[in-house]
């Protein structure tokens, strides 16, 4: 299936300008056209995202990403069901063996309610029940997801704040079960993210070849 990221926002490992080292954000169509070494459409219609560990990052971290995000925010109550369904393959992972592959992000804050990781061959997640909760609660969703294997990961959020993260790989499936966001999230603005976000800080000695690469073969974002 052809994956269309043209209208999504892509955060790249490229600096915004020669004088601004912060990671460049641009829409998917422009990213494909201007930075094919990091964002490209393959012959089968899938999308390849590459994030070297050594590159441009956000103001608050020394961690690079090549990550899509929704261009329009939503609230819990704006739809009965919010879905992020992503089928992907990790073809390379950074030397820490940990990368964020999907998120429910919240506008204006660095503590998202949901982060989903590929972590040393397992799919894990961090969940914050309360807005601005200091430490997320970590859960293993699915064990045994090897590098190079195609897998699906989905995040389902309801208007009532019920969150379920599920994953399937090689016929095995796992789920977080239903987790509940409390009412401190009710007025917040969210967007889904996905791709590769390295969970390792870069330094001056980081090898150029270190990084993470994924191929997204299906992507569905719905609010209904």
So, CATH architecture? Sandwich
Total domain modules: 1
General shape: globular
Report the radius of gyration as a whole number of Å.
16 Å
User: In CATH terms, what is the fold-level topology?
Assistant: Jelly Rolls
Q: Report how far apart the termini are.
A: 22 Å
Query: What characterizes the major β-sheet?
Result: 8 strands, antiparallel
- Helix tally equals 1
Poorly predicted parts:
none
In round numbers, the mean pLDDT is 97
Widest beta sheet: strand line-up: 2-1-5-15-7-8-9-10
Strand content: over 45%
The beta-strand count equals: 16
Helix content: under 10%
Structural class: mainly beta
List strands and helices in order, with pairings:
Elements: E1 9-17, E2 20-27, H1 28-34, E3 39-41, E4 47-52, E5 65-69, E6 81-92, E7 98-106, E8 114-119, E9 122-127, E10 137-142, E11 150-158, E12 162-169, E13 172-175, E14 179-180, E15 190-198, E16 211-223
Antiparallel strand pairs: 1-2, 1-5, 3-4, 4-16, 5-15, 6-11, 6-16, 7-8, 7-15, 8-9, 9-10, 11-12, 12-13, 12-14
